[in-house]
Amino acid sequence: MKERLRYLDISKGIAIICIVLLHYDNGVIPLRANVFIGSFMISLFYVTAGWLDSMKPSQTPFKTFLSRRWKQLGVPYLWWTALILAFDCILWACGYYNTYFIGREVYKSVVLRGIGTLWFLPALFGGEILWYFVRKQHKIWPILILLAVAVVYNFYYYRLTGKYTENIHKIISAPFQTLLNILSAWTGILGGFTLHRLFTKAKGSSRPKYLLITTGAAFCIVAYFCANYYPFPIGWGLFAPILGPFGIMLIVMGIEEWTVFRYFDFWGRQSMGLMVTHYSFLMVVCELLSLWWLGTSKLKDWPAIGFFVATMIVEYFVVKFIASKAPKLLGK
User: How many Å apart are CA 241 and CA 183, to the nearest integer?
Assistant: First the structure.
């Protein structure tokens, strides 16, 4: 399906801006709002992937699928890993980073944990490969088995790694974190696929806009409570990351024609560029500026929000330049 769906681009735009905001925020946004945003801002991309896959009448041949997603996700991962490492090495030579930091970044790249936000690319790629083979079976039992594996793995991963904070344990857990990310992506794709099928059966696209908005708001409220007041860990790990994105998508369906959403539409279409450049490049520049102006490299409170606003302005020109001069870096 070549035609872009505006409500999906707007939803992704909201998500990617939330990601950037939370990377800068340190104490300004209330904790419970922060937790709720964190529960859906990444998983929304997984849910939209499953949503789009549900709209396809049939699966493409695996070789075609793999080639296309390698170009869109694998190639950018390699390019941006090399660029970020080169940037980090410059700062290492200037004394800003130490040798351990550089070695850790290289190790994370090799085990597909990814530098900064790059972890998202192999996670989505791996999740889509898992989903491809599960969907191909046309049976419910592989889904239930893998879903059970994902829930159990999620539970024991945090139970076993949460008590350790030493660097050596972080190094050991990195490959297991990669698998967790892949399983989380697969779960989100499954959720998006299922929700679209239910949405289609309920003839959701023909419903009045006010009903879409109120239903979406209800899903967001449920997701908020799942993220903050869950009675068991699965509320954060499974329900909030799926119900929150669905709620946002429904709300956006009802108000997608509002002029203000052109901004989010743009960033939804350029989400890859913003994701891979804001954290490991512009945010580091902001830390250096903060060290120079404020005496500390730690971005916090309202100055951090000021850096966020400045970053979003600069990012517009950065992303436009990359999209026109080096589209391969964005998987295009």
Answer: 13
pTM for this model (two decimals): 0.94
Residue pair 101/92 in contact by the 8 Å Cβ criterion:
yes
Half-sphere exposure of 244 (CA within 13 A, CB side): 30
Q: Which residues of the chain have pLDDT under 70?
A: 1-2, 162-165, 230-234, 236
Residue 162: predicted pLDDT:
65
Q: Which long-range contacts (CB under 8 A, 24 or more apart) does 129-133 make?
A: 129/66, 130/182, 130/183, 130/186, 131/50, 131/53, 131/186, 131/189, 131/190, 131/193, 132/59, 132/62, 132/65
DSSP 116: G
How far does CA 210 lie from the centroid of its chain? 28
Q: Are 248 and 293 in contact (CB under 8 A)?
A: no
